[in-house]
Structure formats: structure tokens, C-alpha cells
Amino acid sequence: MPEHEPVDLELLVQSVVDYAIFMLDPGGRIASWNTGAERIKGYQADEVIGRHFSVFYPPEDVAAGKPEWELATAVADGRLEDEGWRVRRDGTRFWANVVITALHDSEGRLRGFGKVTRDMTERRVNEWSMRESEDRFRLLVQSVVDYAIFMLDPGGRIASWNTGAERIKGYQADEVIGRHFSVFYPPEDVAAGKPEWELATAVADGRLEDEGWRVRRDGTRFWANVVITALHDSEGRLRGFGKVTRDMTERRTVERALDERGQLLAHLVRAQEMERRRIAWDVHDDTIQSMVAVGMRLQLLATRMPGEHADAMLRLNETVNASIGRLRNLTFRLHPPGVDSGGLVEGLSSYLDQVVAGAGLTYSLTHDLTAEPPTETAITVFRICQEALTNVRKHARASVVTVSLVSVDQGVHVRVGDDGVGFDQPPESLARHDHFGLIEMRQRAEVAGGWWSLHSRPGAGATVEFWVPAVPREAP
Question: 171-179 long-range contacts, Cβ below 8 Å, gap at least 24?
């Protein structure tokens, strides 16, 4: 080894100002002191050499025997690394990273310790500030109640949940974290692959904004404004997605009620009902009365004709009477009494009494309406229920029917269920060209600004569920 190397090494150690580098004897007393130690700890060499290194530790650490424990650990393990508070000459504290190395000679005898200390106060303050900032931000996000703000992992599974998400979507955090976010989408959107498409679009474009129906925990829907942002780390890797959702149902309902389309819808519904009423009156006052007269003449002719001709007249009269019955059912379906005179609940109750109970079915009607819906809403609800009940009577082979009406989100939420045979086909495949009743129900709800869905399992009956807004069109 060159003769000048120890001198150069000592010069190097003495010149370092960012690290306190000094020696301890086997008992822990300070044996050397460099410029960095002087700068960091505040002592001159002649003030500190010979003193025990515990002078740099806070009183509570000295009382706990921490300096001695650190030396013992360094002897046992060869070295020790620690971070904690240390004390300067003026009594102020700094956050230190400390490495103590046990030094042995060639025969294995402990000769002392090498101690390297770095002042990490600024880094710790920055980390603490960042952590405090993150905590404040987390508290802010958690406290927001008007927006659902949560994280998705790269696969679309929910990774965080705030108070707003709980309020808007109805799930507690432990019920939803880990599940795929498609749980919030209507079945038709899931079947169409909309959740996956939204994530792919967010990755491709950086973000995606959308408005549409979403599903709460209780199965009801709300109109949501959604922003999905792709989150990448500093190396460009996808780490997940940030998702912000706002419930816009009330705003959409009011806007839809007051815009030109809403006004046209109200006029259209009223015009349709007036036309239905006119047709029902024409059929009742003209066609049915004429057929009744024909039936009476056939009965009279039957009494005046020979036996075989009399029997033919009577069979013809039976056919006429059956046609009269079908026409009367038609007029009832076109304009059942009660909706425009007694309101929605009374109209539905009357219809259930005459049609459902008349077909041998047991029914229950429950309602929790805060107010009578506007006329066009009541008519829309009644017509969808009417079609649903017709399907139950014709196809379900049920014995019990349940109907419930509830005021939700400034609208009417309706369920029509039965205990019939059900079906195993998805609603999307049923509501096609050969199922006009289902198509009509969905179209009525959607044209009114609402939504409609159908749930069923084989042997477990079926439930028609829908919601339509109930804001008066005359509102200012």
C-alpha cells in the first residue's frame, strides 16, 4: 500500500461536511472528530473528544439505555443503522440517519466503532409535509358527499371508496372494494361491454366523460355524470383509474320536464289518451250497440225458424256475444275508468280488481307516493303496468301478483312481480321484434325520460321494474 494513502484518507474524512464521521473507543467515548461532525452537531473537536457519545441523544433515549443498546447491537451484528432524533450542542434536535460499525483488529479484538451520521431533518420535514398533504387530501376526498370519488385497479376492480360513493351508490366500503366496477352498470350495458369500452377509451385518450344510467345497491337507477381518468406512474405504466361520479338525476328530471321535448311528450301522451277515449266511446256507443241489436234479432229469428236453422241462429248469436265481450274488453283496455277521475293508485286498484282478480289471481298493491303524479306520468305508469299485468295473465301461469309504487328521485319507481314460471332468456333477447309488449313498455319509459328493466329466473317468476320522472310540466 502506498505510504501516502492513510494521509489522503484522513484528509478525505476531515474534508467531508455533509456527514459527521468520527470514531468511538470500545466504551463509546469520542476519539476523533471531522468537519461534518462540527457542522452538524455544533461542537468543536476540543469540546467533545473524550466525552461519551450519548451526549448526542435526547434524555428519554439516554434513560432508556438506547446508546448502550446500539453499541451492543453493532458488536453482535457487525453494524447498526438507525433513524431518530439527536441533539445538537445548542439543545435543538435534528433527525439523523446513523450507521455504527464495530471495528476489530486482525486478531478479532474490538478496537472501537466507526460512526457516520447524516442530518435528514429537511428530508423528514418534506416527507412529513407530503404525508400531511396526502392525509389532508385523503380526508378531503373521504369527506366529499356530493361526488363518488374512488380508485380502480388496472383491471377495473374497486380499490378505494369515499363517503360520497357510499351515499350515491348505497354500498359500504367493505361490500364493494375488490368487486369489478361493472356492478354499477345496467345489465344491458354490461352485456354490451360498456364498462370495458370506457376503460379502454380512458387509456387511449387519457380520460373519458359520459352520462347515462347507473345502478345503486338497491337496484334503482340514477342518471350519472362520470369521469374516468387513466393513472400512470413516472415510467408510464398504468397503475389504475380515478373515477368521479355525480348523481344528476334531479337536474336531468327537471330539465327534461321543462325542455321542449318534455312539453311535446306531455302533449303527445294527452293526445294519445284522448284518441284512445274517442275510439273506446265509438266502439261502445256504435259498434257494440249495433252488435247487441244484431244478437237480439238473431235470438228472435231463432224462435221463428225450424229446429236445425234455429240452432244455427243460436250458434251465430253466441259468436256475436263473444265478439261483444272482446270489444268490451278492448274498450276497457283503451280507457279504463279511474285514472283521470280518482288518480293513479285508485285507477290501478280498480284495474287489478277487474282484470287480475277476475282472472283468478291474488294481488297486492302497495304505494308510498309523496304526491299524485302529473297526468302524463300517471298515464305512462298505468299503461306500463297494464301491459305488464296483461303479460302475467297471459303467459306467467302465476297465482300471485305484486305491484308497488314509490316516490324516488322526483319520479315514480314501480315494480310489478309475479310468482309464475319465469324464463331463462336475457331481457335483451326477449325485448325484440317478436315481443311487442316488452318493446312498448321500454319505449314508454324511455320516451318519458326514465328507464325500464325486466328480471326473471326459471321457476322464480318475473319482475318488471321501471322509473319515470314526475315533475309537473307547468313548473317555472
Answer: 171/217, 175/217
Beta-bridged to residue 207, according to DSSP, are 229
- C-alpha to C-alpha distance for 184 and 156, rounded to whole angstroms: 12
471 close to 254: Cβ distance less than 8 angstroms: yes
- The residue type found at 373 is P
Contact between 218 and 413 under an 8 Å Cβ cutoff? The reply is no
Q: What is the DSSP letter of 422?
A: -
The torsion angles phi and psi of 80, rounded to 5 degrees, stand at: -145, 135
pLDDT tens digits, residue range 169-214?
999 999 999 999 999 999 989 989 999 999 999 999 999 999 999 9
Exposed / middle / buried, residue 427 (Cβ in 10 Å: 0-12, 13-18, 19+): buried
What is the per-residue DSSP string for 258-318? HSHHHHHHHHHHHHHHHHHHHHHHHIIIIIIHHHHHHHHHHHHHHHHS-HHHHHHHHHHHH
Residue with cell 287480475: 356
Q: Is the pTM of this model over 0.70?
A: no
Q: How far apart are CA 184 and CA 212, in angstroms?
A: 11
Burial of 21 (0-12, 13-18, 19+ CB in 10 A): buried
Distance (Å, whole) CA 363 – CA 352 = 7
By residue count, the chain amounts to: 476
- Grid cell, residue 93, equals 434536535
Distance in angstroms (rounded) separating the CA atoms of residues 253 and 223: 9
Q: Please report the pLDDT score of residue 1 as a whole number.
A: 43
CB neighbour class for 29 (10 Å; exposed up to 12, middle 13-18, buried from 19): middle
Nearest by Cα to 310 from 300, 324, 321, 320: 300
**DSSP assignment of 181-246:** GGGGS-HHHHHTTHHHHHHHHHHHHSEEEEEEEEE-TTS-EEEEEEEEEEEE-TTS-EEEEEEEEE
The residue to which cell 303496468 is assigned: 385
Cell numbers 374516468: residue: 228
Do 430 and 454 contact (CB within 8 A), yes or no?
yes
340-387 pLDDT, tens digit each: 667 889 888 888 888 787 778 899 999 999 988 888 888 889 889 988
473: closest CA among 338, 402, 401, 376? Answer: 376
Beta sheet of 400-408, edge-to-edge order: 362-368, 400-408, 411-418, 462-469, 451-456
